[in-house]
Design a protein that fits this description.
This protein has five helices and no strands. With about 130 residues, it is an all-alpha fold. It has two domains: about 90 residues, no CATH class; about 35 residues. The protein is globular. The chain starts with a helix and ends with a helix.
């Protein structure tokens, strides 16, 4: 239960950081492109990979700290970082088919799910 609470705390920190970084990027770069989302996804992917290397490959942090920082903070900051890390690991393991399938199914599947969610809300609300 303690680990769960640490992850919840980390998620709150990550969500707050996402809000701040996105707002900063919007203020600095303007609204012509979703720079805030891009910044969060790039930063999150970089940080998650570094944390996973330190926590799993180099084993330099306790599991609860790793989970708080990765599942919690990075998960609250961006789940795209997890997608990137899992795809990278598949490529490193030589599982090119899995990596390609992950990219295609995730990108296309999420777009379809988004369209279906939009259409469902529109239908339910009668708009």
């Amino acid at each position: 239960m303690e680990r769960f609470l640490w992850i919840c705390f980390g998620s709150a920190v990550g969500g707050g950081a996402r809000y701040l970084v996105s707002g900063w990027a919007l203020k600095i770069l303007g609204p012509a492109f979703p720079y805030g989302t891009l910044a969060v996804n790039l930063i999150g992917s970089f940080l998650l990979a570094g944390l996973m290397f330190a926590g799993v490959e180099a084993a330099t942090m306790p599991a609860t700290v790793r989970l708080t920082l990765t599942t919690g903070v990075m998960g609250g900051f961006t789940t795209y970082s997890t997608f990137s890390y899992e795809t990278m690991k598949s490529l490193q393991d030589g599982a090119w088919g899995i990596a390609l399938a992950n990219v295609l199914v995730t990108v296309l599947g999420c777009l379809v799910a988004c369209l279906l969610g939009w259409a469902s809300a529109k239908w339910i609300l009668g708009a």
